[in-house]
Amino acid sequence: MSTGHSFTPKTISYSDYLDYWMKEHCEINLKYHTIQAYKNIIKNHIKPRLGFYRLSQITTSTLQECVNNIYVERGFSKNFLKNILKVLKTSFGYATDVVGFVKENPALKVRLPKYDIPDEDPAHIFTKEEITMILERFKNNHAFYYAALTAYYTGLRVSEVFGLTWDDIDLENRVINVSIQYMISQKMIKADGILELLKLNKEQDKLI
Predict the structure, then answer these.
(1) pTM for the structure as a whole
(2) In order of start, what are the domains of the chain with their CATH numbers?
(3) Which of 36, 107, 136, 205 could covalently link to 89 via disulfide, CB atoms 3.0 to 4.6 Å apart?
């Protein structure tokens, strides 16, 4: 095989193969941010655990054990583990389907560990204690205090409350019309911003 590289498919290490795959496939076909993400995963998580194996020696059980150990030791989110598994599957897919360095893709049957806890809390329901804590924390910040109070009693998102004008409020008919959402900053996105802002202000208090 004339590839311009000083290795053979039977002796190449997985580490050297990943460098080859990155140069011959990823850097030519993938977007910049995807390439950087793959390089980070390869450098920090795959090469330290699998790089010393010969490409031809790696089995499904080897990869499954690797993924399981990363999950147990590092506690990464399910989405990040999916990215790690994607690098494994696509790199071996290229080795089998394109260049023929190995006969079968050992990553195809690798499974992610079961996640009993979701990655995020997309619909956090605040308890009365949390609401009391939030209102107490921001009682001197009238803009945020009344925005949080309005959100609590109406069910609106904080971003929707901050987008309200007097034209949106019909006091006579007790109706609020939501026409726009207003994001103050990225700090206000998660859990409608309340918990994140609360944590942020607590951290600032510690620095004072």
Answers:
(1) 0.55
(2) 14-97 (1.10.150.130), 128-207 (no CATH)
(3) 107
